[in-house]
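quick q for whoever's on today - can somebody do inverse folding on this one?? i tried earlier but teh output was garbage lol. tokens:
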């Protein structure tokens, strides 16, 4: 691969193209719930908020009060939720990204659901198996469960300095505006087909991230885990966990290969772990003759 993809914080489609050009402004702005897993005041969500607002959309942030990276689709199902309205269009929710989106949908937007939920942009890529555990993706999945179109957005991480990632996050935010405009311009019956969301991963282009990506690929989610955990016994019943990169050769047109090639990865996702008809048929063959 061209570059190492793992500078991580755990925080069959073959279409390719250039980043879409922004469409002409619509008369009515979209009402957008903006969330993430890095916290309501993280640089990535602020960059996306600024760009979407500049584009004329009505954007309300409803996001975790603190970093909730790696919380996946975790949700509270009962008890109490703490939430503070930090300003007219910003809410901080003490809980997971899924909790924040649920609070947004059923309290902040309780009288009229938003047109779109955007989650991100995250500090670090959410590709391959990492996407399964991503709070950024989890927020989008929560929206999708309740029938609201959703886009999860992440920007490739950089180490040891965060500056290249922060620079790339500005380009990511610009791309989000173009993507939303493209989706809006192409569909009159909704931004996305029912039950379908998009997981977008934006690369750092160049050493400093100042250059925008010039192409995108509609990708598959690679199946590899990308990281391997290790546990060191401290002798007192606790273990120190370490994570090391474990990158295998990526699949063709996968999110891993696409990001490594400095292209934007756009992966269609659904809100369940169901399989297609071929996998279902294989499972049926394996279970044939099973007696309860």
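ok took a stab at it. sequence:
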């Amino acid at each position: 691969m061209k570059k190492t993809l793992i500078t991580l914080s755990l925080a069959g489609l073959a279409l390719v193209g250039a980043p879409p050009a922004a469409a002409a402004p619509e008369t009515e702005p979209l009402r957008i719930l903006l969330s993430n897993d890095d916290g309501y005041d993280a640089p990535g969500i602020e960059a996306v908020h600024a760009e979407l607002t500049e584009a004329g959309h009505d954007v309300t942030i409803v996001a975790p009060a603190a970093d909730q990276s790696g919380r996946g689709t975790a949700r509270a199902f009962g008890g109490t939720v703490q939430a503070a309205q930090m300003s007219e269009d910003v809410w901080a929710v003490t809980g997971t990204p899924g909790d924040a989106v649920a609070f947004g949908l059923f309290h902040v937007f309780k009288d009229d659901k938003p047109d779109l939920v955007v989650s991100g942009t995250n500090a670090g890529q959410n590709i391959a198996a990492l996407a399964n555990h991503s709070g950024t993706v989890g927020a989008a999945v929560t929206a999708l469960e309740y029938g609201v179109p959703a886009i999860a957005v992440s920007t490739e991480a950089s180490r040891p300095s965060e500056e290249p990632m922060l620079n790339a996050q500005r380009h990511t935010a610009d791309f989000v505006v173009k993507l939303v405009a493209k989706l809006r311009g192409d569909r009159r019956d909704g931004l996305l087909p029912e039950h379908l969301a998009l997981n977008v991963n934006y690369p750092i282009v160049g050493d400093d991230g100042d250059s925008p990506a010039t192409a995108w690929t509609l990708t598959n989610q690679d199946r590899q885990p990308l990281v391997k955990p290790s546990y060191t016994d401290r002798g007192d019943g606790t273990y120190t966990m370490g994570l090391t990169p474990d990158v295998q050769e990526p699949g063709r047109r996968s999110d891993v290969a696409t990001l490594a090639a400095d292209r934007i990865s756009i992966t269609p996702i659904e809100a369940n772990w169901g399989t297609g008809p071929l996998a279902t048929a294989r499972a049926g063959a394996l279970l044939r003759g099973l007696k309860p």
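fwiw The two ends are 48 Å apart (CA to CA). also DSSP finds six helices and twelve strands in the chain. so keep that in mind when u check it
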